[in-house]
Design goal:
The protein is mostly beta strands. It has a single domain, classed as Immunoglobulin-like, CATH 2.60.40. The chain has no helices and 15 strands. It is elongated and about 50 Å long. The N and C termini lie far apart (about 60 Å). About 35% of the residues are buried.
Length: about 160
């Protein structure tokens, strides 16, 4: 018998813009949710930040504005019936690019730690942020649609 699990991480945006001046405008949007697709019991599945399925966020604002990017990452995702599955985010699962042509497979800043607050400048075309991760199902994982919230907080530094 073949058992597959369908999972996706739902991204929740939390934006905090402190120290903004009149006329400063910044927005954050989710371009892609972190999608693991089919997962098999007992077989961990990783999604690299550079591949299809990675979470992608777009930050827009005034070119040159400095911001911090901070994540609150879940340890588990769950089904509506209460089953849970472990999530792991590694110390190199984050990438960011503020160039004129952001490149997910070769970003300006790669292999960043999503548990560390990152300080970054917004480019002329904004800032692209990518996040990968790993789903770790149990050997006897219940089937279902698993989800969790990822919170990203963007703070304007005033610089």
């Amino acid at each position: 018998m073949r058992l597959t699990l369908r999972i996706a991480l739902i991204v929740t945006l939390s934006t905090l813009f402190v120290g903004m001046e009149p006329g400063d405008t910044q927005t954050v949007s989710v371009v892609n949710n972190l999608e693991f697709g089919d997962v098999f019991p007992g077989v961990p599945k990783s999604i690299d930040k550079a591949q299809t399925g990675a979470a992608e966020f777009s930050v827009s604002g005034n070119a040159g504005d400095e911001i911090t990017v901070e994540f609150i990452l879940p340890d588990y995702m769950s089904t509506t019936s209460g089953h849970s599955m472990r999530l792991v985010f590694g110390s190199a699962d984050l990438a960011m690019d503020s160039s004129a042509s952001p490149n997910q497979s070769a970003p300006l800043n790669d292999d960043l730690n999503p548990y560390i607050v990152q300080t970054y400048g917004i480019g002329a075309n904004g800032l692209s942020v990518w996040l990968g991760g790993k789903a770790v199902p149990k050997l006897v994982q219940q089937p279902g649609n698993y989800s969790a919230d990822i919170t990203i907080t963007i703070t304007y530094t005033g610089n």
